[in-house]
## 1
Amino acid sequence: MSQYVAAIDQGTTSTRCMIFNHAGEVISMDQKEHKQIHPQPGWVEHDPMEIWANTEAVVQGALAKAQLSADQIAAVGITNQRETTIIWDRRTGKPLYNAVVWMDTRNNKLVADLAARHGGQDAFRSRTGLPLATYFSGLKVRWLMENAREALAAVAAGDALFGTIDTWLVYNLTGGVAGGKYVTDVTNASRTMLMNIETLTWDEEMCATLGVPRTMLPEIRSSSEIYGYTTEDGPFGARIPVAGILGDQQAATVGQACFAPGEAKNTYGTGCFMILNTGTELQHSQNGLLTTVCYRFGDEPAVYALEGSIAIAGALVQWLRDNLQIIASAPEVEQLARSVEDNGGIYFVPAFSGLYAPYWRDDARGVIAGMTRYVNRGHFARAALEATAYQTREVIDAMEADSGVPLQALKVDGGMVQNELLMQFQADILGVPVIRPKISETTALGAAYAAGLAVGFWQSTDEMRANWGEDKRWSPNMDEEKRAELYAEWKKAVTRTFDWVAQG
């Protein structure tokens, strides 16, 4: 009897397989990191074959750790780093270039050119829900078509396939060149700038504008249905329905049971991403947010969301560890930050890949403002954590302006929510409670929910909501005057990220 659902969580820095029971509890987990490739400043790549090999390994590892056989798995769900772009050859199944990662900024000249020729950054927002930015995968496809020799030749021959990581994994799980399914879901398609946000189909005008042939795009499906089956010679060793696909932030929204309009979550990972469920009505942002698909379950209407995307959150802690070597491991940042009472007057704006919401400035660059001789390692660590909280405040301000609804509390998840100093500061700078769920692996859980719903493992969203429970709540204890003073200093520091552009 099938008692569990497996979720493959393919993220920016690692790949995990997690197995859940009906209560949404983690039965087992296996994880492997993959290499971050930086050929030039602003360029970020991953090896798609390494990601696939790691996927095979973690699936086998999770099954072995729980001593489970494949017939105990009801379905497989996939969640993935969104916008990360792969082109591969339909004849060989091999990638034609490394995956270009969502935070990569190599296509900034293309973005500027399109904005100049088509009427500005918001030229396509009404069709796609998105501003012109280096972030989105359709623009990365265009770069690959123009600059990667093997990809260019394959496109010309009609042999090129484009996919985000979800498409790549489903294709390989279901057989690859021997008949693998070539699909994506509406949440990932809504991040390409190639899907019409209203019709939920590939937009012919956008494809023509970006020069992407329709023949190299996967079929757009819902987030919860059976797309195909794993192969017997694959990592599961049996035929199991692949039945759920959600981009990672939408998956976390589902995992947090944010099924009602007005419910929001914030995920603190490599980047930081807040999603507000706006229901089945499309809502375009006037304040620098993205309109995106939140999820679509089977034949039900699509549910939309407003999203605030922050490029650098946990990645800043990794930078302190790997580049500056201020800490030896990421968890050490909290202890180091606690060694000082405040940030020592410094503000760290990590615009390593420009600034995303609400600014959308790919020309911005990181700054540390307020440096004095007084500053030490502890202040660096504290300012790095506070940067995530300040950026989140900026996104929430934009969301409240768009929706007209003030935030009452913030549901949080992701790796950084174990950092209690950060969570308390987040509550302080927002002035509302911050709530961590009992099951913190919400991204993988959301993918499991989507897959389980498709095969009847869970019958309804009410069952999923019943699994959600509060683990810890942080209440604000900072007075309003102090909150306003700190936030004003942060906003001043943000303006410094644009100074180098103005000065040439």
Note: DSSP finds 17 helices and 21 strands in the chain.
## 2
Amino acid sequence: MNGTFPIRSLAVAASVAGLALLLHPTVASSQGLPTITVGVGEATSPQQVSSALQVLFLLTILSVAPAILLMTTAFTRIVIVLSIVRQSMGTQQMPPNQILVSLALFLTFFIMTPVLTTINDTALQPYLKQEISQEQALERAVKPMREFMLAQTREAELGLLVEISGRPAPANHEEIQTMTLIPAFMLSELKKSFEMGFMIYIPFLVIDMVVASVLLSMGMMMLPPVIISLPFKLLLFVLVDGWGLIVGSLVKSFH
């Protein structure tokens, strides 16, 4: 990973990736991306009406692009695993949601940097230099994102979505529709995140069971076991460098 890659370029490349995933190449070829100007006036030709509709279409896409982009990156797995960690420790709202989401976002950018760098080098910069057309830029931007999702998508989920779509089985990965690949990728991420969450939950569950058994044997049935087990779970988590292990496991799971 290039540590000197500008944050601004990375963010722009991420936006281009989200836009490219929403704009199918056939759509992009049939109607180009218009320039945006703010003004109110009477249309004097059908071309002006068409341009206004294109602007409305583009603004609609941009409004949902962040959500689509988050669902096609590493964010889903990371934020679910971090939420399960907090719940398994029983710390209620500590760390707060803002901290978990912020950590998940920065880890997502860290993991997706190679993909976004490729999009910036092969699609965004050539398009800004007017070396390629809009259609070519969108096609080049989609390719790295598809490769990332295909590498993380399981065959079972992909086969399920292909079967549900009713289309013939693709001969290779290039024939898989992007709209079929995205939900298959999301299902795979949900499955992997819950598998990781299950493994994280087991040590904390053992501590809860031991504390509950000790309290029961001492006849202290009115004392909630969570009050006694929470300090021990926090101590265990700190001693084994829990955050480092979890973040390291999350990053390595994408390689």
Note: Residues 1-5, 25-31 have pLDDT under 50 and may be disordered.
## 3
Amino acid sequence: MRNAQRFSFTEGYDAFGVPDALPQLPLSLTYRGTSVEVAALLDTGASVNVLPYRVGVQMGATWEQQTTSVILAGNLASVEARGLLVSAQVGNFDPVQLVFAWSFSDDVPLLLGRMNFFLEFDVCFYRSQLLFEICPKAQNIR
């Protein structure tokens, strides 16, 4: 990929204590002038970006002011969520607007999913090398 930045997988342990490595992306999220540094799991199976409650609060978002309900599915189906639009800075790329399903729970991971992270960035995974590359979506492809 041209104009790509490489990141390393984060090594750790899964829920069962088995060693594993995950594609976690460090990025800065900004809402109304307040930024937080986070690490988010790149999840090609997630329909939407998901934001834990505490991260939204750290950026100064107010739950009651977010009026767009978001229905989550799968393991998160029981969690109430509302839409939250934030600016995201990935590496040294230009900031992009990301839409999150801001959950009313801290028991959810910070996920970057198909809507809309994978619409803004192209990603190549090199799992055997514990690396992944990211670049902004290609412009003017025909």
Note: Residues 31 and 86 are 5 Å apart (CA to CA).
## 4
Amino acid sequence: MKYDISKNSAPKMPKLGKGTECVKILLSQVSKDMYEPLVPMFFPILGAHVSGAEFQYPDLTWKELCGQMANLVAESGGNKGQLSLLVEAICRDFRQHDEAELKKLVEWQKQVKTKEANKKKPVRPEVAFWFPPSDVTNPAFIQNAMGCESLGNRTQYLNMPEVEMADRMCGGHRQVTQMLRNIYDRQRAGALRATADGVTGNPVLRANLTISSTPFATRKFYKNELFNGTFGRMVFSYKARTSRDGRIPRQGKYTDEFYQKLDEYLVRLDACKGRFIIRPLNKLADKLAQDMASLADLADDDVLWDISKRALVSGWKAGCVLWILNNQAWTKSMGDMVEWLVYHDIWSKMQLFADMLGKDADVVGEAQRRGPKNMLDSLPNTFNEAQLQALRTSLGKSAEGTNGQLRKWVFRKFITYSPQTGLYTKTEEYLKG
């Protein structure tokens, strides 16, 4: 495990080496304080450019690169607006496509208003917007999903500057859970119903989302979604409040040279079709799954274990995007990036919601934040059962779970047990990390 996510400081992003050149290009336009917060947000945008491709996850299921959802969280005035500038840069081709689709609708509306339309109503053209407006309503979202499905199984991408906009897209806050789960799992909308114009469709929801919000708005929005799977399906990228240094962050310039370099990578995403198995990525996913299980055992934290499973899938999908961008080749730097993305997501979730996972709260305070605590690190190199039991009690955990936790640590070779002394000792393997 490379990263200690129990601290308030974010895991440090690895150096961008071979295979992460597209990330470097995008960061060239970003102020330095936003490097780490924005990188996880790139992949839902880039992934929306891929259609007609499936990748095999280690569990042998085939997954598309739709269903990627990420929420950027920073205080008001924390430079979240830089995300929208990057979105427009990456989605220029989407805008051009959508302008042509809009012209079709405008022309149809003109025909409807003519006198001849009273005799023979013109049929509404089938259109599919790839980059709908952020304030899209639920009926429009479903209708657009129908168009995207019938016109090539395209993924629609939405960027929401405020998290509350998701309510409008989902048809109200009560429907947020079902809608976001369906998007993540590439399920059908469940929207089949009769209308005055006939029966509406029930399309597969192929969509990628990025959302921006403040910590307060984020906690309020997801307050009732922490234990139903919605919270775990969303990637969070949290930027903690920085010191008052009195400096205005500097951004880059979106020049023709920048767009030319970026477009070389976007073409690779658009051209990717077929079924693929990225064996080095799957091997890394298996390793990270073991690391997550070890981390959860060290902290004796079931919530951490639960959220890590989907954080791993999201990181794996980001790895698929990197693989395409790198001409369908894998590098160590790409693996380092995927590993960091998984830990950064879990760290962000713990920073924002750890106290709420045990009780309701509306105000986030530094004293309430916590990461998963490695209890073994808090014990001496040689200790007894009573010491672990006392530590568990001080952390609000049950004394009855002490024996089970010791058995897991012995099984994972974190510690050894001496029947002669009744003491447990940390192994050399564990002490060397």
Note: Residues 302-325 form the longest helix (24 residues).
